[in-house]
From TrEMBL, chain A:
<dbReference type="GO" id="GO:0016887">
    <property type="term" value="F:ATP hydrolysis activity"/>
</dbReference>
<feature type="domain" description="ABC transporter">
    <location>
        <begin position="8"/>
        <end position="241"/>
    </location>
</feature>
<dbReference type="InterPro" id="IPR017871">
    <property type="entry name" value="ABC_transporter-like_CS"/>
</dbReference>
<dbReference type="InterPro" id="IPR027417">
    <property type="entry name" value="P-loop_NTPase"/>
</dbReference>
<dbReference type="InterPro" id="IPR003593">
    <property type="entry name" value="AAA+_ATPase"/>
</dbReference>
<dbReference type="InterPro" id="IPR008995">
    <property type="entry name" value="Mo/tungstate-bd_C_term_dom"/>
</dbReference>
<dbReference type="InterPro" id="IPR003439">
    <property type="entry name" value="ABC_transporter-like_ATP-bd"/>
</dbReference>
<keyword id="KW-0547">Nucleotide-binding</keyword>
<protein>
    <submittedName>
        <fullName>Polyamine ABC transporter, ATP-binding protein</fullName>
    </submittedName>
</protein>
Automatic annotation (TrEMBL), chain B:
<comment type="similarity">
    <text>Belongs to the binding-protein-dependent transport system permease family. CysTW subfamily.</text>
</comment>
<dbReference type="GO" id="GO:0055085">
    <property type="term" value="P:transmembrane transport"/>
</dbReference>
<keyword id="KW-1003">Cell membrane</keyword>
<feature type="transmembrane region" description="Helical">
    <location>
        <begin position="75"/>
        <end position="101"/>
    </location>
</feature>
<dbReference type="InterPro" id="IPR035906">
    <property type="entry name" value="MetI-like_sf"/>
</dbReference>
<keyword id="KW-0812">Transmembrane</keyword>
<feature type="domain" description="ABC transmembrane type-1">
    <location>
        <begin position="76"/>
        <end position="274"/>
    </location>
</feature>
<feature type="transmembrane region" description="Helical">
    <location>
        <begin position="257"/>
        <end position="276"/>
    </location>
</feature>
<keyword id="KW-0472">Membrane</keyword>
Length: 346, 285
């Protein structure tokens, strides 16, 4: 891929906080964002993903390493000299300005004249469906509306990269799902590179072209969402992205039939009657006892207790009603394709 | 029945509220506003020039004398100018100091700095004024510090009055500005930089609007305290006369005239408060 098609490149970026570098937030992180992609940094809180975002924005300087934007070294550049805008978690709107003044701020600062400024601010507000809110103050808006103002403000002068720091964290579920669709749509139509920081794996999986899973200041795996979900590179990724059954050591030998560490997704395990015919070639089966049943709407979550105290979680899509035999304490047979027991290092 | 019960409850609450607010309101109207009203009323009385007794006959001689005598106009304008100068000087000093305290200093240093700003308020006003008198004297600290640079201190006079008053009232300006700056979220400043604003632009477009109400709030103190002061000017003012001095010297001779004179700062402060209110600064108090 050509140099110019890289929007962001981080090379061996390390960030230490505290006197003498007592806390290492990022440990020699390498990351490359292609121009025009929707990229997510997914990780638990405290994993360093927000620190990485702040380094790219320029609010912090890396202790070691190099940050490039579109092939240009910006490691020591102040935030206002980078062609990057941020949508903050708490939106950080200017309380003393109207919505329109907020949105036009990047243009005002650059000395764009008022008629053009107003026109472009209105245009940006229209893209986030906030026409007619121009004269309001931020404190007269709902959370979702503030979120849109923050988006419009960051998009008004078409930065090369848009950084989004948990932008949907403060919204309720419905609004969040609505905004996920809108964000994705906005990214597609503008063609701007989006870097989203989130701890919500569903958010990362549904919106992104590529995902990087971050843990303890390191990137564990980078790849398209499906690949990260289907072929987790480490046990951490397997456990953090979606739910999974992690089996290692003795348990792996007992359940999977081989030594090592394996991940089996709960939805890949089929429930069957113990009296049913033996499994086909390439299938693995164990029998156990239903320990718990949780109805979760579209699917039902079974906890199956196996002999020797092993436990497996099984998700069954509620395509039809549960058979009457599926009740706690019932004997049950579990079947899965041997390929679905995916080996995970670590 | 429920409605009657609710009404009785509201009545009880109203009674309790009246009992709670009654005494302080009575104090405010009688002792505070009442004395002010009597003062302003007495401006329209006169004095027997022979016995110096107050004669309670209604006339506007004092007001006319006040408005037509050039000396009074000069004193009033000088007082106003000094109050404005003190306020501006305090605002200029308080902004960077409060910014350092709230934004630059580490949280560990914030409290000691705040205490350092507040401590002078606990020392006696007179002690501080006399300390400045000593410092500003011909062979005082100020002159000995400035002489190597070929400069000379202000000595006693109007500049010294501005300087000392600005020193005395500075904490009243720093505190509200510091509070406003501390409340300003770091993210807002970052957002400004993120959107392309340099340091000065952020100061002008984000920080200053955020502290403007606090500056006005602080200026209410510095302005009105300066208007009423008459002791500092006696200590470091040389021959300078302010409204306060005129009032003080008239109190024993001609009380109604003193009352008329003291109406001037009251009117000025009311005008100032009205202007500040229009700027929306009192919402923050």
């Amino acid at each position: 891929m050509a140099e110019t098609e890289e929007a962001v490149r981080c090379t061996a970026v390390t960030k230490e906080f505290g006197t003498g570098g007592t806390v290492r937030a990022l440990d020699a992180v390498d990351l490359t964002l292609r121009a025009g992609e929707f990229f997510s940094l997914l990780g638990p809180s405290g994993s360093g993903k927000t620190t990485l975002l702040r380094l790219i924005a320029g609010f912090e300087r890396p202790t070691r390493g190099r940050i490039e934007l579109a092939g240009r070294d910006v490691t020591a550049l102040a935030p206002h000299r980078r062609d990057v805008h941020t949508v903050f978690q708490d939106y950080a709107l200017f309380p003393h300005m109207t919505v329109e003044q907020n949105v036009a701020y990047a243009l005002t600062v650059r000395g764009v004249r008022k008629p053009e400024r107003t026109a472009r601010a209105r245009e940006a507000l229209a893209t986030v469906r906030l026409d007619g809110f121009a004269a309001r103050r931020p404190d007269a808006l709902s959370g979702g509306q503030r979120q849109r103002v923050a988006l419009a403000r960051a998009l008004v002068d078409r930065p090369a990269v848009l950084l989004l720091d948990e932008p949907l964290g403060a919204l309720d579920l419905r609004l969040r799902q609505e905004m996920q669709t809108e964000l994705k749509e906005l990214q597609r139509t503008t063609g701007i590179t989006f870097l989203l920081v989130t701890h919500d794996q569903e958010e990362a999986l549904t919106m992104s072209d590529r995902v990087a899973v971050v843990s303890d200041g390191r990137i564990e795996q980078t790849g398209p969402p499906l690949e990260v979900y289907e072929r987790p590179a480490t046990a951490f990724v397997a456990g953090f992205v979606g739910t999974t059954n992690l089996l290692r050591g003795e348990a792996a030998v007992r359940v999977v039939g081989r030594p090592g560490a394996y991940s089996i997704r709960p939805e890949r395990i089929r429930l069957a009657d113990p009296a049913d015919a033996p499994p086909l070639d390439g299938e693995r089966t164990v029998t156990g006892r239903i320990a718990d049943i949780v109805h979760a709407g579209a699917h039902t979550r079974f906890t199956i207790a196996l002999p020797h105290g092993d436990r497996l979680t099984v998700h069954r899509q509620n395509l039809a009603e549960l058979p009457p035999t599926a009740r706690p304490e019932a004997e049950i047979r579990l079947v899965w394709d041997e390929k679905d027991a995916f080996p995970v290092p670590g | 029945m429920r409605r009657a019960g609710a009404g009785g409850g509201a009545g009880g609450a109203r009674l309790r509220l009246a009992a709670l607010l009654g005494p302080p309101l009575l104090w405010l109207t009688l002792a505070y506003l009442g004395s002010l009203a009597v003062l302003l009323l007495s401006a329209f009385w006169t004095t027997d020039s022979f016995t110096s007794d107050v004669v309670r006959t209604w006339n506007t001689d004092n007001i006319q004398e006040l408005l037509t005598t050039p000396v009074y106009r000069t004193i009033a304008l000088r007082t106003l100018a000094i109050a404005v100068a003190v306020t501006l000087l305090d605002a200029l000093l308080a902004l960077p100091m409060a910014f350092c305290m709230a934004r630059v200093a580490s949280p560990r240093w914030r409290r000691p700095l705040l205490v350092a700003v507040l401590t002078p308020l606990w020392a006696s006003y007179l002690v501080k004024a006399y300390a400045w008198r000593v410092m500003l004297s011909e062979d005082g600290v100020v002159n000995s510090l400035l002489s190597p640079l070929g400069l000379h201190g202000p000595g006693y006079g109007t500049p010294a009055v501005v300087l000392v008053l600005a020193y005395l009232w500075l904490p009243y300006m720093i505190l509200p500005v510091y509070a406003a700056l501390e409340r300003l979220p770091e993210r807002t400043l970052e957002a400004s930089a993120d959107l392309g604003a340099g340091t000065w632009r952020t100061l002008r477009s984000v920080v200053l609007p955020a502290v403007r109400p606090a500056l006005f709030a602080g200026s209410v103190f510095t302005f009105s305290l300066s208007l009423g002061d008459y002791i500092t000017v006696q200590i470091v003012g040389g021959k300078t006369q302010l409204l306060g001095n005129a009032i003080a010297s008239q109190v024993t001779l001609d009380l109604p005239m003193a009352a008329a004179l003291s109406a001037v700062p009251v009117v000025l402060i009311v005008c100032y408060l009205a202007a500040v209110r229009r700027a929306g600064a009192l919402d923050a108090l």
